[in-house]
Backbone:
């Protein structure tokens, strides 16, 4: 079980600017907290989905809080097949 480090992002910040420095924007849907926009490191996420797949369960460490989630969407750039955004759905701890 690998944990990806994430940080809450300001939705006013341009995603293109963040991608230039290696951050991947995403949204965590559901849960008690509501929908949370976040960033993870793009290279870590690419390695994770290469090993586990695009519909796998992932644990993210969002500002010190460990959250279990399922990858529900991965958006890719048309020309380069590069991941440009990710959508996660929060799962309860008892879901396998």
Residues:
């Amino acid at each position: 079980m690998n944990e990806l480090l994430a940080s809450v992002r300001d939705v006013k910040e341009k995603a293109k600017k963040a991608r230039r420095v290696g951050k991947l924007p995403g949204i965590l849907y559901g849960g008690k907290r509501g929908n949370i926009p976040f960033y993870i490191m793009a290279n870590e996420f690419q390695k994770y989905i290469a090993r586990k797949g695009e519909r796998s369960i992932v644990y993210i460490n969002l500002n010190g809080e460990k959250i279990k989630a399922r990858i529900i969407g991965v958006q890719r750039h048309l020309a380069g097949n590069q991941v440009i955004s990710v959508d996660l759905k929060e799962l309860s701890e008892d879901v396998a």
